[in-house]
């Protein structure tokens, strides 16, 4: 590597020269001791749009060209100017769009406009590159040193891991501007299973097909037919159902009959069928019938799976000359990567979806090739049979097929196909063979995970069949430490992961980690090793030079990335992680954003409370300066980390907190704040309460209209000091008397009851039972009645008994008769009986058994009925006997 030299060329040939050397392509050649080892070309936007060339083709199939933008054939969206405007302030943008939303056209339109402003724009369409070239392309971009360059990378969802790494590195050291296009997949939106992804915090614009569908339709109908605006609007309304998929809409317009005002689906699929059978070459040569070629391709590329050309020629009997002609016309795409045969695909998965729709609707369409695939089986098994034949014929492609089936259409058709395929032993064997042949350890990991998700039994068998020595050797040969980490993460078997890590060369891995520049990749790799094998994780961190790890914190600009890195080290080796905390605290002290501080503290606390507690001095005073609502919220959010929460509140200045309480008029905020402080440290809570003028607090309670707000202050004071809680009883009980809502009354009582039963007892003893029973009589909700009786009885058995004796039984019976929920009836009866067995027994005697039986018949579950019968025995045995006799006369006899 020391003799490696690089040469950069920016070609300056005119657009009229051969398309392969069109102006602006950026070539990078790596030369090792005079021998060319690798060459990767970054295509210019001129090359991608075939500037100076015109391809005669069907607009509903072909990709847009320079001339299409130049002559206004492409409807320009507002998003184009928004993206260009954002380039002024944003180094990286993420453009999201569902399949057939027009995302790629928007990106090309951006490139076209920028190129016309004399900007150098380079485009990487990932679907057109084999896996082994993607990383080279990204590395080439990162080594360019020109701030004026614009890079557009499309279809990031096809290479998530490579793209995420590329975004990280471009953000930290790349030159120029970067625009990333992707489908809004789970990985892009939600990130990796462990952390938020690099994509999460990028500036985003979402592209929707609907935004351009109407304008596109208007333009077509106006140019081709010169229809009136009124008729155009009628047609647009009638074909509205196609507007979410621009490929579908394009075919609808192609199938449009000017004598009609709408296009039916069957007309579209008939047009697709006829078009495939009669592809015009435009050269005076006989048209091509591509139905045999397009059927297998459409089945595969719906899931963005490329298919070996050899399979079509040797297994399906398709002539190579037909394939060549289709490639020349850009109807299909051919790629080739190191160690693999030539692969075929369509330009877009939505094209494949539409084509396959036509094959499904017309049994005679593609019949000859279907018969070869089905081998006398029913046509409904066409997809499964093709995948079966392909995987068992070429196990070397099994891993790619599995990953794409599951990844591209999660939870839908792809997953169903995979589930059916994994039932077959021969498929399982082929996948095992494919794993042995697959070099990409990340793809192996995903394959294992997806098989396990599709069929647990097959997945377990596959995991146990893994050759530990072979896979660990592949891991040792992998230079990308992030791939190493995630490949282990995806293999969902603790024993296999442990054995794999035991076989990995930890010394070699530690050297790779020391060479890795990306701090997040280092952290992820170390943590996944530790997840897989705790001892190995501990050993790995010990092997790494501590100065090397410390230098990462100094060199990293993103505090978020540092936090993720430190938490990963803490998980693997707390002792080493604590050394990093000392260095990190200096950076952390500069952070003033409270939300970010909360996230950082919670993240570190989740790995090591000891480490987080060590940071308290760095942020406690910043929290102390906030209003009591913010302080209380912050402290409460640390409730899962008791040591950190306690350390924080111990650091607070009591006089400062006391002053905040005195100056705040919100009794709800004060209550929640004091509850959080006291539950972090009862000692600090007591100091705080003693510093407050209790008369001032009582006056604030008197002013408070909302009883729910008083609940929190009673709960917190009762928890901290029973003596002070009792002093507040009079103020709170007077507020309860004024409150008509028995739910709010119950919640206020519950607040005290949770923290101090003596205070709660004193509170309910102060309540006027006559007034409260009257409120209960007026409340229609049986569940609310049951709950307040329960709360008062738990606070004081005597008060509870007195309360139920004061309730009007006739009114209560009326509510029971009107209540449809048998469970609420039962629970209310039991709570009344718990408060007073005499009242409960008399109440049950008065219940109309016919009404109760009718409620039981109306769909109550057996478990509830059994529960009713068992508990009624303890309330009133006479009523239970009466109920059983009634049961014996009905279909409910079995419960008797």
Shape type: globular
Please report the number of helical segments: 54
Largest sheet geometry: 5 strands, parallel
- Rounded to the nearest angstrom, the radius of gyration is 36 Å
Please count the beta strands (DSSP E, at least 2 residues each): 11
Low-confidence stretches: 1-23, 28-37, 191-196, 889-896
Going by helix content, strand content and strand pairing, the class is alpha/beta
Strand order of the largest sheet: 5-6-7-4-8
Helix content range of the residues, please?
55-70%
Describe the protein.
- With about 900 residues, the chain is α/β, with parallel strands linked by helices.
- It is about 65% helix and about 5% strand.
- It contains 54 helices and 11 strands.
- It has a 5-stranded parallel beta sheet, with helices on both faces.
- Helix 5 (about 130-145) links the parallel strand 5 and strand 6.
- Helix 12 (about 290-300) packs across helix 16, helix 44 runs parallel beside helix 47 (about 780-795) and helix 47 (about 780-795) runs parallel beside helix 50.
- The protein is globular, with a radius of gyration of 36 Å.
- The N and C termini lie far apart (about 85 Å).
- Residues about 1-25, about 30-35, about 190-195 and about 890-895 have low confidence and may be disordered.
Question: Keyphrases for this structure?
Answer:
896 residues, disordered N terminus, five-stranded parallel sheet
């Amino acid at each position: 590597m020391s003799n490696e030299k690089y040469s950069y060329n920016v070609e300056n040939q005119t657009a009229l020269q051969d398309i392969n050397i069109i102006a602006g392509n950026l070539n990078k050649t790596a030369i090792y001791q005079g021998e060319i080892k690798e060459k990767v070309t970054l295509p210019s936007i001129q090359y991608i749009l075939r500037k100076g060339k015109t391809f005669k083709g069907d607009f509903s199939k072909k990709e847009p060209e320079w001339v299409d933008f130049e002559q206004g054939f492409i409807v320009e969206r507002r998003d184009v100017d928004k993206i260009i405007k954002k380039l002024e302030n944003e180094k990286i943008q993420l453009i999201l769009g569902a399949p057939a939303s027009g995302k790629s056209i928007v990106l090309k339109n951006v490139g076209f406009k920028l190129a016309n402003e004399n900007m150098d724009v380079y485009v990487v369409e990932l679907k057109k590159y084999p896996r082994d070239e993607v990383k080279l392309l990204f590395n080439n971009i990162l080594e360019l040193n020109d701030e004026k360059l614009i890079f557009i990378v499309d279809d990031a969802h096809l290479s998530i891991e490579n793209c995420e790494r590329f975004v990280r590195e471009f953000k930290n050291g790349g030159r120029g501007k970067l625009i990333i296009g992707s489908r809004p997949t789970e990985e892009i939106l939600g990130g990796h299973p462990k952390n938020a992804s690099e994509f999460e915090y990028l500036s985003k614009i979402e592209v929707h097909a609907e935004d351009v569908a109407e304008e596109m339709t208007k333009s077509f109908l106006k140019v081709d037919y010169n229809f009136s605006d009124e008729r155009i609007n009628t047609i647009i309304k009638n074909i509205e159902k196609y507007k979410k998929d621009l490929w579908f809409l394009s075919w609808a317009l192609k199938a449009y009959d000017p004598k009609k005002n709408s296009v039916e689906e069957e007309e579209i699929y008939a047009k697709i069928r006829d078009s495939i059978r009669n592809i015009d070459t435009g050269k005076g040569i006989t048209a091509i019938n591509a139905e045999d070629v397009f059927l297998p391709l459409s089945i595969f590329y719906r899931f963005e799976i490329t298919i070996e050309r050899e399979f079509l020629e040797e297994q399906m009997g398709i002539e190579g000359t037909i394939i060549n002609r289709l490639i020349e016309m850009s109807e299909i795409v051919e790629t080739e990567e190191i160690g693999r045969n030539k692969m075929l695909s369509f330009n877009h998965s939505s094209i494949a979806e539409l084509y396959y729709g036509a094959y499904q609707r017309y049994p005679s369409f593609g019949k000859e090739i279907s018969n070869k695939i089905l081998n006398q089986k029913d046509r409904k098994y066409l997809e499964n049979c093709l995948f079966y034949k392909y995987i068992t014929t070429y196990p070397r492609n099994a891993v790619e097929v599995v990953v794409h089936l599951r990844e591209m259409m999660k939870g839908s058709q792809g997953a169903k196909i995979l589930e059916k395929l994994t039932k077959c032993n021969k498929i399982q064997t082929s996948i095992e063979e494919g794993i042995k042949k697959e070099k990409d350890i990340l793809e192996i990991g995903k394959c294992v995970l997806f098989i396990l998700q599709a069929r647990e039994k097959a997945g377990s068998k596959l995991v146990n069949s893994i050759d530990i020595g072979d896979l660990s050797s592949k891991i040792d040969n992998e230079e990308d430490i992030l791939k190493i980490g995630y490949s282990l993460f995806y293999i969902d078997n603790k024993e296999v992961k442990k054995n794999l890590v035991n076989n990995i060369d930890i010394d070699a891995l530690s050297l790779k980690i020391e060479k890795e520049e990306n701090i997040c990749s280092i952290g992820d790799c170390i943590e996944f090793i530790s997840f897989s094998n705790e001892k190995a994780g501990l050993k790995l961190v010990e092997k790494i030079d501590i100065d090397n790890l410390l230098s990462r914190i100094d060199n990293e600009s993103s505090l978020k990335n540092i936090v993720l890195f430190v938490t990963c080290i803490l998980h693997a080796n707390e002792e080493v992680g604590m050394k990093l905390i000392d260095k990190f605290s200096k950076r952390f002290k500069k952070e003033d954003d409270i939300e970010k501080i909360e996230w950082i503290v919670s993240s570190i606390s989740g790995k090591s409370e000891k480490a987080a507690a060590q940071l308290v001095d760095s942020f406690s005073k910043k929290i102390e300066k906030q209003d009591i609502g913010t302080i209380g919220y912050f402290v409460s959010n640390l409730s899962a980390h008791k040591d950190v929460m306690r350390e924080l509140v111990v650091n607070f200045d009591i006089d400062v907190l006391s002053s905040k309480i005195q100056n705040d008029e919100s009794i709800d905020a004060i209550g929640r704040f004091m509850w959080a402080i006291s539950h972090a440290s009862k000692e600090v809570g007591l100091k705080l309460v003693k510093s407050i003028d209790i008369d001032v607090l009582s006056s604030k309670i008197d002013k408070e209209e909302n009883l729910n707000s008083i609940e929190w202050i009673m709960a917190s004071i009762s928890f901290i000091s029973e003596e002070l809680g009792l002093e507040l009883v009079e103020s709170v009980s007077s507020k309860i008397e004024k409150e008509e809502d028995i739910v709010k009354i119950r919640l206020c009582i519950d607040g005290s009851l949770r923290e101090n039963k003596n205070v709660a007892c004193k509170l309910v003893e102060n309540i006027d039972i006559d007034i409260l029973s009257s409120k209960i009589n007026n409340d229609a909700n049986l569940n609310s009645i049951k709950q307040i009786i329960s709360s008062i009885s738990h606070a004081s058995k005597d008060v509870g008994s007195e309360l139920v004796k004061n309730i009007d039984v006739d009114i209560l019976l009326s509510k029971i008769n009107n209540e449809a929920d048998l469970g609420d009836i039962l629970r209310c009866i039991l709570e009344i009986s718990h408060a007073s067995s005499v009242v409960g027994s008399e109440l049950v005697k008065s219940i109309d058994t016919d009404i109760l039986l009718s409620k039981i018949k109306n769909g109550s579950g057996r478990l509830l009925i059994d529960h009713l019968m068992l508990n009624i025995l303890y309330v009133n045995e006479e009523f239970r006997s009466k109920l059983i006799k009634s049961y014996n006369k009905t279909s409910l006899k079995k419960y008797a």
